[in-house]
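HUMAN: Would you supply a protein with fold tokens?

ASSISTANT:
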Amino acid sequence: MTADDPMPSVDISARLVLADMDSKRTGYIFTLLAIVIFAVQDGISKHLGGLYPPAFITMVRFWAFGAFAVLMAASRSRGGLRAAAATKRPILQIGRGALLAVQIIVVINSFTMVGLAHSQAIFASTPLLVALLSVPLLGEKVGWRRWSAILFGLCGVIIILDPGADGIDPILIVPLAGSVLFAFYVIATRLVSHDDSASTSFFYTGVAGAAVLSFTAPFYWTSLEPVDWIWMALLCATGISSHYFLIRAYDLLDAAAVQPLTYLQLVLAALIGTTLFDEQLTLNMLVGSLIVVGAGIFTIWRESVVARRKAGTTDASS
């Protein structure tokens, strides 16, 4: 083989392509694992939420999550805990953790009061709310395509809520509040991402949430039945493993590839809700969910297109 032979470079290119394909395949496996575990976690949350105060359940879950965040920071972050805890936005980081903790309490209440399937159908509107809130809070520009998708998706939400002659059922305010709270959490996460690393944000999500709940949720402390400690342990294990797999998925795939797949959680929630908890699916829920999911996926796709276009413009001007 001569020095001018192109075969070595072709072989290297082929290996890089295969490595990239293997990496993406692994990323999709991690994403699907996270989605399935999140769905199981929701089912356990609904079961325990019908027996014990949601604030108590969330506190124990965040204690496990906080411990996991500390271990992850110590083992994966350069500089260990000190580097992970170093933040330029301490108030906002702590606020994020507290916001997520409150949101999970609302979510567990929603699963108990409204149901898994109905709640997840409404939670599917979160990407639309994020796009809507990003305009006044982040100063982002939203084109007519995304505005159309947002309005179309909100119409789907109205179909899911199914307002009658007396208006919207007041109990549906609970999942709506959960969706709005998570949208604000996502916005806060985007804000801190300008100054802090992902590992720092993850650290504060677990530790700040656990710390805030430790001050408030002990007022809801309840003795668990021995068998329910097993369910609580499973809830903590699913919470930790689902977040870990999602982190690994984002390490290997773009957010635009991961986020549309998370809508599978809506399907799994419907299956768990109908088979294990005797929930009923209505035509409004099915039609509204299809509209919301379609609008959400389009919004996520347009955001990725705009982001790539901006990145290309920046590269061209540098």
